């Protein structure tokens, strides 16, 4: 049973919370992690991991269907959704067990229970076996995550959250997904690949509003070619019950009947207990923090989805590391460390083709007053992509024409999320296009495409014929 006095208490065992707890222990601070559900949070149990395990299955299925093209005879291939689900469950279980071991190894004390703040450094907890306990700490990190938002709908209509859709026992025939952010697009790709008739409805002018517009529009074209019906600029006004599921009604009067509807319309920070403590939140309920994740109460920190942040697991993990560093300094010296460097966060969407954004989009760079220089490189000219017959999409790079500094790297293509490290290194290190072009890259790989886009930007294209630059001031 956990002691009552700790250096730091971390509430929430998702990617943000468990990262902070490990880093705190590595700094010699006695750390208690309180989690009310399963370790790993949304990411491991109901988000990133099960969705990617299912997307992997669907990707394999899509590849098998065209195996003949590569001289592979499979005969009559079939898939079994329930066994795909079982694969996702096994993946989650394996990683969950691994995480338990990891936390034990690093010396993090884990307690199962629901935590509530009593005072800034006092946490009350109803443990999993119903006992009420009180814990004291020198600092507390809240990493309580977020919950999916739901649109109002008629009682009995078959409407699900983005998390619930990953746990269906059977696939629907017709599905409407409301919300064209990363979750909505991934689910649309997944279920369309498995033969479900998918309609994806987004109220903004293009899918994935966070991505570079040109790249996001190219992805939309690719999804439509694969069979997804996409309706942008369409606000859903109501969801009614139908004999088979639900009817979704748009502002312009359009209606879609479906066996199931998924609301992927955003998430709400789990900040209610902190608000009762007097922690400042913004109009969306997101906890307001400084650059070291410290709230308006100096011994209270917040990280991950509960903060107005990235809505990504890796963003939450980075914030967890930052909070641990800040608390170590706060407890040892009574002050925060000097200003940390800004994050360069990659954003990906794991449909096929995948899409990746690092740094500024072309529009953002223009709005910030840069004389913007842009170039593109098509996968059709990349040996690795041609060998895999994965030539859909392109690399787009955005640079400052005056200094040559790279401002953004955007990719659409097969498996491009795995190139995020290279793209982040280029942008975060403030490299110029010439420096980014000059890296030696293994041949034949997709990484070469990034180099090619930079060579084109410099007016020295190697494997493309057109001069790919466009100066946009
Ligand atoms: C379908 C889907 C797919 C996604 N895919 C990706 C992806 O590919 N890549 C990516 O980067 N992100 C993805 N995300 C987003 C990612 O899951 C979240 O950004 C991430 O989980 C946030 O981490 P967190 O630690 O802040 O919160 P969470 O993961 O939500 O963890 C918070 C934890 O706090 C616990 N908790 C809450 N309140 C209390 C309390 N009072 N007492 C005790 N415990 C409490 C909860 O039980 C939970 O375990 C996806 C999300 C979804 C829904």
Describe the protein.
- This protein has helices at 15-26, 41-46, 48-65, 81-106, 182-193, 213-226, 272-277, 313-333, 362-367, 383-387, 420-428, 433-438, 447-457, and strands at residues 5-11, 31-35, 109-119, 122-127, 132-142, 146-148, 159-161, 174-178, 197-201, 229-231, 236-241, 246-250, 255-258, 260-263, 267-269, 300-302, 347-349, 354-359, 372-378, 394-400, 406-413, 470-472.
- By secondary structure, the protein is α/β, with parallel strands linked by helices.
- It has 3 domains: 2-147 and 268-333, 3-Layer(bba) Sandwich (FAD/NAD(P)-binding domain); 159-263, 3-Layer(bba) Sandwich (FAD/NAD(P)-binding domain), CATH 3.50.50.60; 353-472, 2-Layer Sandwich (Enolase-like, domain 1), CATH 3.30.390.30.
- The model has no long low-confidence stretch (mean pLDDT 96).
- It binds flavin-adenine dinucleotide (FAD).
- Flavin-adenine dinucleotide binds at residues 11-17, 34-37, 41-43, 47-48, 51, 114-115, 143-146, 162-163, 183, 270, 273, 304-305, 311-314, 316, 350.
